[in-house]
Amino acid sequence: MSKSVEPEKLASSRRQILKWGLLAGVGGAGTLAAFSQLEKIKLRSSVTVLPSTHTGAISGQASTPLTMLRDFDYGTVTQEKGRTVREFRVEAQTSTIKLDNAHTFITWNLNGRVPGPTFRATEGDRIRVIFYNRAGHSHSLHFHGVHPAEMDGVKPIRNGKIMIYEFDAEPFGVQLYHCHVAPVTRHIGKGLYGMFIIDPKDLRPPADEMMLIMAGYDVNDDKKNELYAFNGLPHYYMHHPIAIQQNQLIRLYVLNMIEFDAAVTFHLHANMFKVNRAGRSPQPSEETDVITMGTAERHILEFSYRYPGKYMFHPHQDAIAEAGCMGLFDVVESTKT
Amino acid sequence: MFNLRVFSLLVSAVGLSTLMACGETQDSPSASVSPSASSTAMSSGMNHSATGKKQININGAILSELDKLEAKLAVPGLSNKIQASRPYGKTDELVSKKVITQAQFDQVKDMVTIEDIQLTGEAKDVDYMTKLGLMKGHMLVAKELLDLKKPDQAEPHIGHPVEEIYADVEGQLNERKVKEFKTSLIALQDLVKAGAKDTAKVDTEFKISVQSVEGAIANLPDTQRKDPKFVLQVINGLLDTANSEYGAAIADGKISQAIEYQDSRGFVAYANDLYKGITPAMQKDSPDAHKAITSAMADLTKAWPAPIPPAAPVKTTDAVSKLIKDIEMNTQKSINPS
What we know:
Radius of gyration of chain B: 23 Å
CATH superfamily of the domain at 208-336 in chain A: Cupredoxins -  blue copper proteins
Shape of chain B: globular
CATH class of the largest domain in chain B: Mainly Alpha
Structural class of chain B: mainly alpha
Largest interface: A-B, 77 and 66 residues
Largest sheet of chain B: 2 strands, parallel
Strand content of chain B: under 5%
Oligomer: heterodimer
Number of helices of chain B: 14
Largest sheet of chain A: 6 strands, mixed
Number of strands of chain A: 21
Structural class of chain A: mainly beta
Shape of chain A: globular
CATH architecture of the largest domain in chain B: Up-down Bundle
Distance between the termini of chain A: 6 Å
CATH architecture of the domain at 208-336 in chain A: Sandwich
Strand order of the largest sheet of chain B: 1-2
Order of helices and strands of chain B: HEHHHHEHHHHHHEEHHH
């Protein structure tokens, strides 16, 4: 099914490896020649990204939690005054998603998806986000990270207006962005948030990388969450487990974006993971299998599975897990891939 | 979504027969920009053109400003075309998005910018009045809900002027020497949040807040506030927002978000109020447009039969959008008769 990638030949960024892995899995083996001219990085070992045996497609939605999982958006890249500029275009929209059989929810979102695109850049790049508000209410994009006050995204941008946010990608680590118009609980709860990953200049070791955002849904405006989800849809990864390879290094970028509940944990079954807080270190610093995360807190978690099989991940606030915030890794034996 | 080229490369490289559902990688190719494009916003210092001339922000300018470009290039309908192709990441996207040709762009490139510019003249006044008009719309529907003894439902509409609009108009209020009224809006919100128990007190504070908004509007000269050309632009701003909000209220053929239904109700109500003020002038100067606008407005208003949403929407989002488009088209005729 999948194919290991030979690093020396594949002078490419991880994103392209991952996409190639996904595509190869779907469409069969292919040539690597096309990548030879792309960015150069040293990969010390191979990374195998397993395809899923299902697409998990949802009618009427271009993105699903499965396609979002490894969909890193590096923007449109140009060179300006000797610098790499990454341009991202996002439109605030409103649209409905079916959270479960009983709940169709009106989201406020970017480009029709919840969470919004996972922006990704390297430390020091210039980031330009062209934000077009077409969602009725005033909205904004507030980025975490270091930038001048006028780019802090607290000022509401009215319906029909455009704001261009421009700043340097710093410091490296896992950042996030969200709408900062009050009540922020409602603007985030309805879907205006996403992850912003800033890679260090010395890239992290190769791994199968994924983005997971925990979020809550207040479906009846009572300022409490009734449903929860990883990457937008309750229970999705329970029905569509994430296939990963045995003994392969997995790197999760995890963010807690749950409003109304002060904090949740992230727990992984039958394993320990290494924690790199906010992704601010070159290497993880501690090991555990449950980590507490307040709202907006995010970390890089790294692990690999020794034994094949299906393993759950979820907050250990079990009511929250059972209300939709849980999923499965499906660890596939190395010899079978 | 922005690496279309890489993506196609990958597709051809692995000889895919079926594409994954990967909507985010499929952006319009017209959005890509040439790598040689000159930088416009690299410096956060917001330096303006060395010519010192007042530039037009193609992302934000109102039609009457864009008309300067339309006039210069003598392209009929250009202002609307520029507006329809927003947003622009760089000025030369006017060419890559096929709004104008390279030769035309060369003629106007010093006149256009995507940087934030200080609004002046009519554009500034339209912007100011629209923001205050949105506040007024929120307050109208808040009052209806307070009268119905629904303080919990009124609360978001008293909150919205502070949360969504005030920060955006604060600079202009200071500049125009309008006394700040954020404090009174917040004080009122506190009362309503707490259940609006003392109705007399709520009433008094509500009046203070509404008078503040009205006072800020009255800062504009009376002649301007009665000028159809000016007021119609404000009405369009209100209706455009009402349109988006109405769409954000409906799911599965039901009004599932009362807040957005009520927001849009308030904006349309204030648009109706504003139109009344220019009716005599419209009757006199643009009788045809007036007829079309009043009939469409009356039909549109039926979508909001009461402050509490009906079980089923009276009008679909498409029907509301169409009426608002009709109204905008007719207002353009009298704003910009050509």
